[in-house]
Amino acid sequence: MAAAPAGDMCAWWGDSPPEVQAAAQIDSGANAAEMLPPLRYVMDPYPTFNGIVLDPRGNRVFLSDENRKSVLSYELSAGGNSPDATPPLWQIIGPQTEVGFIAGVEVDPERREIYAVNNDIEDRVAVFDYDAHGDLKPKRHLYVPHQAWGLSLNASRGEMVVSVQQLGALAIYRRDANGMDAPVRIIKGPHTNLADPHGVRWDAAHHEIAVASHGNSAVIPPYTDYDAPTPTASAEAVGGKFLPPSLDLFDDSATGDATPVRTIQGPDTRLNWPMGIDIDAEHDEIAVANNGDNSILVFRRTAQGNVAPVRVIRGAKTGISSPMGVAIDSQHNELWVANYGDHTALVFAREASGDAAPKRIIRNAPAGTPTGGFGNPYAIAYDSKRDQLLVPN
Question: 3-state SS string over the chain?
């Protein structure tokens, strides 16, 4: 993508809020006099939401922030129609937290713990207490396969499931796994239909695990001995392939190359880069953050095949912009959306459909503040003809 001039899209470092500057500084241990400061920064000084999870009984919503590398928590009633930023209750941020390229967040309300899963660099799940704030070390961390993305807990089984993009796998760990603990089992193989899995949700009430896949199926050996079994020679010979995006539901005791108990897949589903998902066990529905067309899709939990969603939230009034996370609060009859393309989290009526306006908005920046769009930039090029910086994510 082409990075806009700092004054248009992002902010000069010196113009950033003081608390943002303080939180973003990294103690390198080097003498400040030996460090060469940049002439200017092209950056977004505000958080960018991607993952979301609710605790209705505890009156809390937790959001992961990929841009500033943090986890923020708010009261469930937070937000409104104000153009101002909504102050969080707490924010976990800083180099000691081990929160980096964060992909999502999960909570254990009974034990009052927060789980932050890192996707592409740190390769770990960091666990904090509910009221953790600032730059603090996690109470424990678990190393997970490279490109872990989604995480979901099953408190009754004492287990958690982690989706892994490149390996096309679900890794199930003990809830309290720590350090280099290995998964207790892995779901992986050609019969699973897992292809670049992202959002995952453990439906304890129905003993199922639901997962959303983008459709990029690769055959990649594991990065470590405990990640997943090495592919067979025949599988390696076939190579990768592209599949339609899908929602796959597995028996929650499945292991190995298990076939899903149901699959939602096909053009009528409208699935397009499905990201975070949530299950409303009370109303028998699955909600999907459909990043590819700025929508939220809602399916019957028991749906299978090439089926249309029962509801779609999409349109200019919705404010949905590159949604990454979705969460259902059946207790308060609300549906939450974490926007990646806008500095907002949106709250809709649970049954909202069509071009519906949100009930209220949580903002992590003043209204109208554009996002930088940086996710994981690893290279940069200069276009001398257009006088632009090109930054692939």
Answer: CEECCCCCCCCCHHHCCHHHHHHHCCCCCCCHHHCCCCCCCCCCCCCCEEEEEEECCCCEEEEEECCCCEEEEEECCCCECCCCCCCCCEEEECHHHCCCCEEEEEEECCCCEEEEEECCCCCEEEEEECCCCECCCCCEEEECCCCEEEEEEECCCCEEEEEECCCCEEEEEECCCCECCCCCEEEECCCCCCCCEEEEEEEHHHCEEEEEECCEECCCCCCCCCCCCCCCHHHHHHCCEECCCEEEEEECCCCECCCCCEEEECHHHCCCCEEEEEEECCCCEEEEEEHHHCEEEEEECCCCECCCCCEEECCHHHCCCCEEEEEEECCCCEEEEEECCCCEEEEEECCCCECCCCCEEEECCCCCCCCCCCCCCCCCEEECCCCEEECCC
Which domains are delineated in the chain? 45-371 (2.130.10.10)
pLDDT of residue 225: 54
Structure tokens at 251: 């028996």
CB 273 within 8 A of CB 256: no
| Distance between CA atoms of residues 49 and 363, nearest Å | 10
With a cut of 70, list the residues of the chain below it in pLDDT: 1-33, 220-239
Q: What pLDDT does residue 27 have? A: 44
Question: What's the pLDDT tens digit per position in 6-51?
Answer: 333 333 223 444 444 444 444 444 455 577 888 888 889 999 999 9
Q: Are residues 236 and 276 in contact, defined by beta-carbon separation less than 8 angstroms?
A: no
* pLDDT score recorded for residue 392: 83
Burial class of 375 by CB neighbour count within 10 A (0 to 12, 13 to 18, 19+): middle
d(CA 277, CA 285): 11
Backbone phi, then psi, for 310, in 5-degree steps? -80, -25
What number of other Cβ atoms are within 10 A of residue 219's Cβ?
16
Residues near 214 by Cβ (< 8 Å), separated by ≥ 6?
A: 195, 196, 197, 198, 245, 273, 274
The predicted structure's pLDDT at residue 165: 94
